[in-house]
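Sharing a chain and its predicted structure for anyone who wants a worked example. Both blocks are below, sequence first, tokens second.
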Amino acid sequence: MAKKVFYVIMSILVIGILIIASLFLINFIDVKADKQEKVETYCYDIPDSFVTNLLDSQRFIKVKVSIQVTDNDLLREIDDQSAKVKDNIIYILRNKKEEDFNKSDIQLTLKNEILSRLKEVFETDKITDIYFSEFVLQ
């Protein structure tokens, strides 16, 4: 009988310790998540759509692009150098072949290429995403 009582008490203690440890870890994780900074983002909508022909093709593409950044000063720099931004985007679009647009991930591919090029041009990682609000192939 004494052994049964001992096992019951030990089981209750182990369960209690596990519950306390779990609550501590959950609370610790919540505190750590609260400490992470929320990054404010800004979006630059390029006013005009891009319309350009594809490489070695009679077809053309029309896209409207927005650029997401995490620095308001960079937003102004992009606006001031909009010709450079447009030139780089047109360069990427014009060097795509018609066959490239048969791939299901062409938008993601273009997004990544534009993002990579603009990060390189502006020498920053504060450009975080590219959005297409219009994407037409004719």
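Comments welcome. The chain is about 55% helix and 20% strand.
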